[in-house]
Amino acid sequence: MQKVLKKYFLVFTLPTLIAFAIAFVLPFVFGVYLSFCSFRTVSDTKWVGLDNYIKAFTVNKEFFNALIFTVKFAIVSLLSINVFAFLLSMVLTRGLKGTNLFRTVFFMPNLVGGIVLGYIWQCIINGVLSKFGTTLSYSSSYGYWGLIILMNWQMIGYMMVIYVAALQNVSPDLIDASKVDGANAFQRLRYITIPMVMPSITICTFLTLSNSFKLFDQNLALTAGMPAKQTEMLALNIYNTFYGRIGFEGVGQAKAVMFLILVAAIALIQLRFTRSKEVEA
Amino acid sequence: MKKKIVGMMMILAMASLAAGCGNSKKTSSDKGGADNGKGKIYYLSFKPESDETWKKIATEYTKETGVEMKVVTAAEGTYEQTLKSEIAKTDAPTLFQINGPIGYKNWKDYCLDLKDTKLNSWLLNKDMAVTDGDGVYGIPYVEEGYGIIYNDAIMKKYFALPDKAVSINSTEEINNFATLKQVAEDMTAKKDKLGIDGVFASTSLLAGEDWRWQTHLANLPIYYEYKDKNVKDADTLDFKYADNYKNIFDLYLNNSCTDAKMLGGKSVNDSMAEFALGKAAMVQNGNWAWGQISQVQGNTVKEEDVHFLPIYTGVEGEENQGLCIGTENFFCINSKASEKDQKAAIDFVEWLFSSDYGKKAVTNDLGFIPPFNTFSDSEKPVDPLAKEVIKYMSDSSKKNVDWNFTSFPSQTFKDNFGASLLQYAQGQKKWEDVKNDMIKDWAAEKSVVAAN
Amino acid sequence: MTKKKAGDIALYVLLIALVLLFLFPIAFVVVNSFKSKLFISSNPFGIPSGESFAKFGNYTEGIEKTNFFGAFGWSAFITVGSVVMILLFTSMTAWYITRVKSKVTSCLYYMFVFSMVVPFQMVMFTMSKMADTLHLNTPWGLIILYLGFGAGLSIFMFSGFVKSIPVDIEEAALIDGCNPIKMFFVIIVPILKPTVITVAILNTMWIWNDYLLPYLTIGLSTEYKTIPVVVQYLMGSYGAKDYGALMALLVLAIIPIIIFYLCCQKYIIKGVVAGAVKG
Predict the structure, then answer these.
(1) Which one of C15, C28, C257 has the shortest CB-CB distance to A111?
(2) CB B17 within 8 A of CB C81
(3) pLDDT, tens digit, for every residue of C234-266?
């Protein structure tokens, strides 16, 4: 079979490979190269070594601040989204009537795009804050919690759907058996349910974490970094550095490379960590 | 063998499909350019408030000449950002603009020499153009002025009050900061009687909407500092007149129709609407804002009541100070565009400033005061604000303030200063820090820009 | 028993409260889209009536300012076109590189997986530059870009599924002299159907809502603007932040998604779950 198929390599892969080369491989390689260059457009590149990487931290503290803000945001949204989604899925798997309707509603926000979502919440939050005589741009903590609320609203339904599917697969016999053994509700959750749905927890933490780190549209639409770039997350900071400042294209590209390393490292560590947990359980 | 042929054919089919998709654009755009041999124009406009007018002019031009033209307007505060992403494209803007010598430094690779164009020969004052050596790379297309716009109906009402705290009887008599402050504070005390929410419209400090403060108002202290030092640009700044800036900025904040904590959500349009609806008596802006005042639904301001007051900041000898008049709008033609498209763009701007339709659109619809000799005295804009600017330009007893903000280091500098002002307005930053950060940032940004 | 009932009622109350909370933002936009723009910021939570009631004024303005229906058309074209291309080509590629084991194919597989992790900012400039050089800055070109940038996730998911299909059928078919291409479409594709739905849904959700890629490659200067691009354009530009038109536009942007969702709800939720479990 291998032999027969060998000569069909191009038939099966060529269109994808062409598109993949154009949209990813070449831009990626070129992007890494450009991060070591000073350039305005691609026709005037000049090799500057690690200069851009140094500049990313020395010209101002924006990138570092964005990193801190992103980390803080990612941790809190990771915890809140998963806890809420898990609780909600427990409620929805109790066999109540109308579960489907509830699930439909909770999942819906996930389909609304980030830009649209950002503006909806901007109007709501500004509306609420105006009752207290202030606005979203008054303090970075408003923007921070605004983003958390928005992210929760958008992602809880998604994670809930995954948890529901996982919980439905937990065998009722196991639960019954443990009841007979006299385990209380908390013990059942701790020793049976959670280990059983551990793969889903892995997936959900991975999804929320990577979505939080890469957040761009929502950030742009909700606060655009106001006030004074204090609510600017990494992706937005990279975009603003690249397109917002003449002469900083290389720095923006260098920041993007560091961002990639960070995201890739998190993905790896996190997968390792939760996979090992699964084995233990 | 048969299979091999089928396989080959599949590959060919797919390759041609991919190539066909890729090329379809090219052929269609070639055709678009060649169908009438007239080239095409893509203008990247700087002024959001006149976006619709530009589009109208473009439609008319296409109708008249058959030359395809499109206008795209960049959002507030993102002109350079938009220009950067657009100019890298194959269908790049053919007509764009720079804000003066600093802008020229950034974009000189894309600026065509316009020395031999008719447009250049029409310039009333050749010194205004952006030049480099022999060449002329940016041609100013509008002169503009800004100051404090006031609604005389409300002011008259105030001056008619029996218990007013000042001895003067009309707004025209205000000729220094001390008087302005006295009037403004007394008006605030009597705002219920005057039927206003505050003397000044909102100091809009939303990001991107703060240019009236981080650029225009900041021009005054810089102007006086340059004047003292007899320079046109500086690598470092003392911000010697910082307290004067604080004077007027505080006055705006303390006598505003909006609570200072709400200013971070306000846009320029909000302030202009407040002024137009008579909620505020004064607003700092330029003659370009007339449209924003007159087009507000429920507008209560009468045309004859709208006048300019110079921005007084408490500098010695400011009694003779006029409006801030200058330009930061220089047309450039993309030197990397095809010759045909370059010619089309030049033809368009020449048409705009010499044909009857073009001239009328420039003065009436855009409200421009054009710096060209193709306009006779009767062909000047007739809106009240432009008329005032023209009055100040020809009044030799007044010393108008130059637009020195074209020498500000970068957009980043302006944005940072604007963010700083917002924090100051919200009571989160001390004035000392605003001042010191501004000085530090100026030097830092100047050196960063110089290094590029 | 009564205790359980009381608990259920409490849960219902909680759930209904949550439903209201989840629906509130959407209701908020719908209500405000009928308010004239001056009242949106001054009284955001009021019900429009009398002078604050703008009828469909905001809608006509929003549609006119942004050419919304054009944007809708291009959004739909790009999304459908890209998803069809992705399904067709990545399923073929995924099947092939999973079945044929060689250094090249496993290297390709890891490259595709790696591309899933890479944030868009990494390639935003170089990709848009590349697209421009190759004249791909059109809706048709965008489809190729989405095929390339979306290949990672789709191939990962397809190949995860292909691994679980026994090879026997394919081998038998090939021994019978069946051409591999015909065999793929006649035998493999029907088996792949559940994954096809999953991949289709995940990609639709991504492409329909994507902002930065179409903004950077197609940009503001063409008539090919998509819905997220016009929403951002309306908000960012004009110096006149017209909240009335914005609200109307937001409603218009949400309606097609909700209709799509309500029609294919079952598939969407299943698809998302399946996607997550494999992803």
Answers:
(1) C257
(2) no
(3) 776 544 567 788 888 889 888 888 888 888 888
